[in-house]
Each structure stands twice: as structure tokens, then as C-alpha cells.
Amino acid sequence: AVVTAWCSAQSMWSSKAWHLPSAYLGPYPGPAKSDVLLHLAFIRAARDGNFVPFHSKIVPELGAPFSADWNDWPVTEELPVAAMGLVARASDIFVALNVALVSCHVLAALSMYCVARIRQVGPALSWTAGLAFGLAPYLFSESPDHVLVALCWHVPLFLLVWDGVWSDQPVDMRSKRFLAGLLVAFVTGLQMPYYTAVFCQILLLSAVLMLIRTRDFSRLLPPLVLIASAAVAFGLMNLDTWLHQLRFGSNPQALLREY
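RE: above sequence
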């Protein structure tokens, strides 16, 4: 149902349509803050083997007469970009972008459905929740401009982690539930920092509120360990950028915004 709705919204009913970006007007103007050209460049570089996770990123086709050095630009979502590069290698960069976009919707729907079922919501309502989240206007608003922002399938999993911290019962850090929370935190840190920031901020706020409520300082430890798990993943994905800056110096213009 999600795939059908997405294809209908984007008019992706033919093989030819899949070989063009959604909302393509040629040349693509995009909104003022669109990153679609940046993402397409990432996908092509990954396809050609020049964008490898945890590795130096030098693109010989750009920056003539030299090569483009992308190591100053921190990219946390290197694994999704690499996956899109593999799809592009089997097809082309536009197909890879479209496959990634529809995958964002499908994964979001599946995640919300699973979270609802874990919380013992009935199958019909769980299916409705999954469909609503998988077809959320927010996801469509990021197509095709910000595919990595649309990759928010893990956000519903935050509810399970936060619920464990909010519980009146102390968190058993040796339980399977807490270990699953550590995995969610780590996976979160590997992806869009916007969502990582929300995840960690709510955890920190929850820890403070539980401390005020219970006067038990041991309640601070589980949320802090979860935040540390996300921070380790975030640091791992940015390690190549930091090492490059230590070797060659920082570039103050690398993250300069025009707005």
C-alpha cells in the first residue's frame, strides 16, 4: 500500500520515470535549501568507489585541475550513501535516489507497525499507524530534496527506549530490553544528527525528571549509557573527518551556511 501510494504521488508508473528524479523539471531548480544535487553527487561518488565509509573521500572528476577533497565536510550518514551507491552501480544514480526515497517510506511504515505491535496495539490499529507514518506529509516534503532527512524509520523506536527510562521500575541494564535500547541508540548515532539530538535530549530530560522524582542518582546511569552509545556511533562516523583535520588543519569555510 505504501509503495503504491508513493508511486501514485510521484507518478512513478513506468521504467522511464524511475530513471528521473521525482519532480524533475530539467535542470532541477529545487527549493532554496534543497540538497538533492549534493546527494546525487554523493551517490555518484559512492558508485565510483570514491565515497567509502570510514575512508578518505577524494573525487578525481571534480575540482580540476586537482581533485575534490570532501574530507572537510562531515557526513554522518555514510552507510546509507554507500548503500545508494551500490544500487546506482547496478542501475543509475536517479534510480538509486528513487529506490532510497520509497525505501524511506516503507521502512517508516514497518517500524511504526512493529512498535505498535510491541506495545500490544491491535493489528488493525497498528497497520493504520504504520500506514499513517509511512505516508506522512513530512516524508513527501523531503522528496527528493533531503533523502537522508526522510530516512527517519528509526524514530518510532525512540518511544520504546524512552518508555523504559520513564518507567517506575528501575532499569535492569543486563536485560534484553536495555541491550535492545543500546542497539537503537547506536543505530541512531549512525544516522541523521537531527534525530540523534532529539533522542539524546529527551533521554537527558527524562533522566533529570526521574532524579527529581525519585531522588535516586542511580536512575541517571541508564540514560547516560544510552546517550554514550549514540555518541560512540556518531564519533565513529565522523572519525575520518576529525583525523583529516588533525593532519591537515581545520577548514573554517567548510560548514559556512549562506542563510
